[in-house]
Amino acid sequence: MDYSKFKHSTQVRVRNYEVDWQGVVHNANYLLYFEVGRVEYLKHLGVKLDLSTIKNENRVVLVRNEINYKSPANFDELLGIYTRITYIKNTSFTFEGYIQEVTSKRLVAENLAVHVWLHPQTGEPITVSGNFREVVEKFEGKRMIINDIPLIP
Amino acid sequence: MDYSKFKHSTQVRVRNYEVDWQGVVHNANYLLYFEVGRVEYLKHLGVKLDLSTIKNENRVVLVRNEINYKSPANFDELLGIYTRITYIKNTSFTFEGYIQEVTSKRLVAENLAVHVWLHPQTGEPITVSGNFREVVEKFEGKRMIINDIPLIP
Amino acid sequence: MDYSKFKHSTQVRVRNYEVDWQGVVHNANYLLYFEVGRVEYLKHLGVKLDLSTIKNENRVVLVRNEINYKSPANFDELLGIYTRITYIKNTSFTFEGYIQEVTSKRLVAENLAVHVWLHPQTGEPITVSGNFREVVEKFEGKRMIINDIPLIP
Amino acid sequence: MDYSKFKHSTQVRVRNYEVDWQGVVHNANYLLYFEVGRVEYLKHLGVKLDLSTIKNENRVVLVRNEINYKSPANFDELLGIYTRITYIKNTSFTFEGYIQEVTSKRLVAENLAVHVWLHPQTGEPITVSGNFREVVEKFEGKRMIINDIPLIP
Question: ipTM, 2 decimals?
Fold first, then answer.
C-alpha cells in the first residue's frame, strides 16, 4: 500500500466499549473505523449517501473486505483513518484505507473494500455512474486508475 | 420484580466480542439481550414486527429503559432472558425482563422498557391497538394490568 | 433534569453503523454515547481510568442505568453529550447526562448512571475515595450534593 | 471454497440490532458471526480459549481477515456458520468459514482468517504448538494441510 497517495483523512478516538477483554480494539471494530473513513471521504467529495439517494438513484453494495492487522489500537488512542479510491472499473470500485495512531504514527491496520454498482430495480451490476467517476477522478487525479467505460459494440 | 410471573423465556450464549476489557459483558449489551427477549416474546405471541408492519400499521417507540446490573455475565455463559408485559396503559405499555445465568441461576440483570404507541402519520401518541391488548391479555392473563380503554365521552 | 447545571460536554458524530433499520440510532447506542461522556468527564478531571488503576487501586461498578429517549438521533448528526456527577453518597455516586443535537439544540436523550465503589479484593462496597470526592467537588462546586463520610462511631 | 470439506457448524439467529438502515445485516457483523464459529470450533476440539490460557501459555493474534459478501442476511433469519482450519504453517494457521441461510441454503458470506502464534513474553512469532497441530489434524484429517515443523538444523 502506497501511503503517499492518500489525500483524505479523518480521525476517531478509541472508545471504551470498542476494546475487548484482551485490552485492545476488537478486530471487527476496525471495519467500522474504515467505514467512518469512507463516509467522510464521500461527504468531502459531495457524494450523497443518504437513504433516499442510495435507495432510489444509486445502489451500491460492498462485496469484499480485506483487512490486515498491523498493531493493536488501545483505549483512548487517537487514530487517523486514511481513505482513497484506488480504481474504478466498469461495474465496481475499490477503496483502500489505512489507520495510523496519530501521536506515534504507528501503523494499525490496512483495508481494501470492493463495491459494486447495482441497477436500482433489477439489482444487476451496471456501469458505475459517469458523474461518480468524474467527481472521484477530479479529487484523486493521477492517484487512481479509472478504466474506460467499455465501448458500445 | 416478581420472577414467578414470567411465562416466556429465551436464551443467548455470551459471545466473545460482547465482553469488554474488564472480562465481563459490557453494560450496553444487556440492553441488546433484553431486546432479543422482547422480539422473541412478540414472535411467540404472533405479533408482527417486520419493517412494513411497524411502518405502515403500527408505530411503536421505546421511550424509557431502566436496567439494574446484579452480577456480571461472563464469556460463553448461557443466559436465560425472561420477558413479560406488565401493563398496558392507554397509549403505552411496559415490558419487564430479567436475565439469569442458566446453570447457576445467578441473577444477572433486570430491565424495564416503556413503549408508546404512535399514530403512523402524525407521530402523536394514540390508544394502544385493541388487537394487541387482546393478544397480550390472552397470553399473560391475570399476570398483567390492562387499563380500560377510556370511554368515549 | 436541570440542564443549566452541566459544566462538561463532549461531542460525537452519529456513525453509519449506529443507525438501525428504522433509520435512527439504535436504542442501546445512546448508552455508549453517555459512556463516552463519562470517560471524557473523568479524563478532564484527571481521574485515571485505565486498566491497571481500576483493577488495582479503585474498583468501580455500574449498578443502574436509566435512559429516557426524547427524540431519535439520525445518521451524521453531531451530538453534544453533557455530563455531570450529581451526588456522591457513602459508597455510591451518580452521573447524569443528556444528549442534544448540536445545530438544532433538539433534546435527544437523558441518562442517569449509578456507580458503586468496591473493595479491590473483597468486592464489597466501600466508602467512595476521599480524593475522588475532592476532585469532583472542586469541579462541580455547589452543583452537586456530597454526603458526609459517615462518622466513625 | 470447497464446501464439502467442512465438518463443524453452529448457528446464530440474526438479531434486530445487527440489521442496519438498509434492512440487512451490517457488513461488520459477519466478522462477529465468523468469530462465533471459530470459538465454537475450538471449544468442540477442546482447545482452551479463556483469558488465562491465552495470556499465559498461548498467545494467538488475528493478522488478516478476508470476507466476500454473497447475499445479505435479514432480520430473524437462522444462519449456519461453517468453520474449518485449512492449513497450519510454521508460525501461522488459517480458518476458513462460510455462512448459509439455513432454510433456503442461500450462501451469505465467506471468510478467511489468518492467525499467528506468538511467544507469550516477547510477542515474536513462534512455531505453532505441537499439541494444537495434533488436535486439529485429528479432527480435520486429510481435509487440511499441515506443514512440517522445520527441522532443527
Answer: 0.89
